[in-house]
Design brief:
Strand content: 25-35%
Radius of gyration: 18 Å
Number of helices: 5
Oligomer: single chain
Number of strands: 11
């Protein structure tokens, strides 16, 4: 294993797995926080989340949201780095989890690709939580996708609002809603160069473009679902000097 260091070499983003910033014991803090938040969930809230397959999704929301000062900060790159550093939010995680109730559950964002011009070999990952595309055509300068969020899930009958945000490669990606509610969008991605972002308190190189979908049910935001674009070699290994933490 390697630490997540100077280069963010992941070619996709996901909330399906939890990735720790360091590996010298700090990963145990992440596990401890998730398990204590799980234990703090009231049985009446845990049961419908578990039945719907949204228990991990809810825990990811609690973990990411309690790292930030408010909803506005939650909807930024800083809350959704590919690897998460210790947020000092263990107590806050338990408190937020305890406040979740059977009639007050966080929603789950889901994405579906309706159309695209990425070639089949560039379509590396397609799931309801993560759509990842890798550029392999050196002559291509632009790609286009139509993506729907209609399959996003809300277990308590509340209406959803849809929030599409460009978190990385912000000058190279345009998101245009097709209808009034924003549930379907067109995403245009221009070939983007490597950039350096401040992630977890350190400058880190990345070749990843990220569009995140959040849905809101009037009470909670969801954890993000991602549509990503990667312009480098996806399976390169991080160099030894990447061991930062």
């Amino acid at each position: 294993h390697r630490d997540h260091g100077y280069e963010d070499f992941y070619w996709f983003s996901t909330v399906v797995v939890g990735i720790s910033q360091g590996s010298s014991g700090s990963e145990m803090d992440e596990l401890r926080g998730l398990m204590l938040a799980l234990g703090a969930l009231a049985p009446g809230a845990r049961a419908p989340l578990e039945t719907a397959g949204q228990l991990w999704s809810a825990l990811q929301y609690v973990s990411r949201r309690t790292r930030m000062a408010g909803d506005a900060a939650y909807l930024t790159t800083g809350a959704h780095a590919n690897a998460l550093a210790d947020g000092g939010n263990l107590v806050s995680m338990m408190q937020m989890a305890r406040a979740v109730a059977a009639d007050r559950l966080p929603p789950a964002a889901r994405v579906e690709v309706l159309e695209e011009d990425f070639a089949p070999g560039e379509q590396r990952l397609t799931t309801p939580e993560s759509v990842a595309r890798v550029w392999s055509d050196a002559t291509a300068t632009t790609h286009r996708l139509r993506v729907s969020a209609v399959s996003s899930e809300e277990l308590t009958g509340r209406p959803l609002t849809y929030h599409w945000l460009v978190l990385r490669a912000t000058t190279s990606i345009d998101v245009t809603p097709e209808g009034a509610d924003g549930s379907v969008v067109e995403i245009v991605v221009r070939r983007h160069a490597e950039e350096t972002l401040e992630l977890n308190g350190q400058p880190r190189r990345t070749s990843l473009g990220v569009v995140a979908l959040f849905v809101h049910n009037g009470l909670y935001f969801s954890p993000p679902a991602f549509v990503t674009s990667f312009t480098a070699e996806p399976y390169r290994l991080a160099p030894n000097e990447n061991d930062l933490d």
